[in-house]
């Protein structure tokens, strides 16, 4: 994909500007892929089975081509706007940026999200046999054709719930670190755009927490012997939800392009 094609896609009226800035990156579950430039670029660039395989050299080759085309386009746009890219001194800016990110990672919300991710890892590691036993149980019910049961549907729902939990497990932390960094930039650098970005990122984190709560709650009836552990996870998420709302009171009102407006 060359820079001309990227520019052509950027000017395509089908696409909602900025919709990809505040999404959860779960394209397979998204209702707006037809309106997303990032998705279109991905589909066009990785249009063969080989180019979609992360382990395949063709994948990295395609990714390199996109990077090169984008870098060339950025240089041309900077020249048009009179911006000297070489004037930015990385050594001068790197330390403050690192400092902000270090602080962001240690904000209460970020720490709580990191702890949640670790607890989730521990639960899945400790309960591999529970999951295996549940799979065997559902398979036995399916073979026995027991009236009043629907093991196939139960299996699909359990799989979906686990996918939701795993998808947001680490993403909540990442989004909250970005939100905290934006909040710090907005406060110390007087940047309104950074504060707005913080609210957008925090909203994505809130959505991830709420969906995780729903997924764990849906799993609970299937793993009654794990009630205490799952209730603990739910309480951790509920506290995290309250923390996010307190730290980013404007997050709920943020309008994500395409999704909310």
What topology does this entry show?
Layout lengths: L2 H8 L26 H9 L3 H4 L4 H24 L9 H16 L2 H19 L1 H17 L6 H38 L3 H28 L7 H21 L14
Helix pairs in contact: 1-4, 5-8, 6-8, 6-10, 7-8, 8-9, 9-10
Write up what this structure looks like.
- The chain has 261 residues and is mainly alpha-helical.
- Helix 7 (128-144) packs antiparallel against helix 8 (151-188) and helix 9 (192-219) packs antiparallel against helix 10.
- The longest helix has 38 residues, at 151-188.
- The protein is built from ten helices and no strands.
- The protein folds into two domains: 3-87, no CATH class; 90-247.
- The chain is globular, with a radius of gyration of 22 Å.
Task: State the end-to-end CA separation.
Answer: 30 Å
The multimeric state of the shown protein is: single chain
Strand percentage lies at: under 5%
Structural class: mainly alpha
Tally of helical segments: 10
Kindly state the percentage of residues in helix. over 70%
Low-confidence stretches are: none
Query: What is the arithmetic mean of pLDDT?
Result: 84
Following the backbone from N to C, one meets helices and strands in this order, namely HHHHHHHHHH
């Amino acid at each position: 994909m060359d820079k001309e094609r990227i520019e052509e896609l950027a000017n395509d009226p089908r696409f909602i500007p900025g919709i990809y800035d505040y999404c959860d990156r779960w394209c397979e579950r998204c209702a707006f892929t037809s309106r997303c430039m990032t998705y279109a670029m991905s589909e066009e660039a990785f249009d063969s089975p080989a180019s979609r395989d992360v382990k395949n050299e063709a994948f990295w080759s395609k990714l390199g081509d996109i990077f090169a085309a984008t870098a060339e386009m950025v240089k041309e746009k900077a020249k048009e706007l009179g911006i000297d890219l070489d004037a930015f001194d990385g050594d001068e800016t790197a330390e403050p940026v690192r400092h902000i990110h270090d602080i962001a990672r240690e904000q209460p919300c970020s720490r709580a999200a990191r702890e949640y991710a670790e607890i989730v890892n521990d639960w899945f590691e400790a309960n591999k046999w529970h999951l295996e036993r549940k799979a065997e149980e559902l398979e036995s019910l399916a073979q026995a054709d027991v009236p009043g049961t629907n093991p196939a549907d139960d299996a699909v729902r359990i799989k979906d719930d686990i996918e939701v939990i795993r998808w947001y497990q680490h993403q909540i932390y990442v989004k909250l670190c970005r939100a905290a960094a934006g909040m710090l930039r907005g406060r110390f650098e007087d940047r309104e755009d950074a504060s707005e970005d913080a609210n957008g990122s925090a909203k994505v984190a809130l959505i991830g927490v709420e969906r995780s709560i729903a997924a764990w709650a849906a799993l609970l009836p299937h793993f009654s012997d794990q009630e205490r552990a799952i209730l603990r996870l739910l309480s951790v998420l509920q506290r995290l939800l309250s923390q996010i709302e307190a730290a980013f009171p404007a997050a709920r009102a943020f309008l994500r392009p395409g999704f909310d407006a």
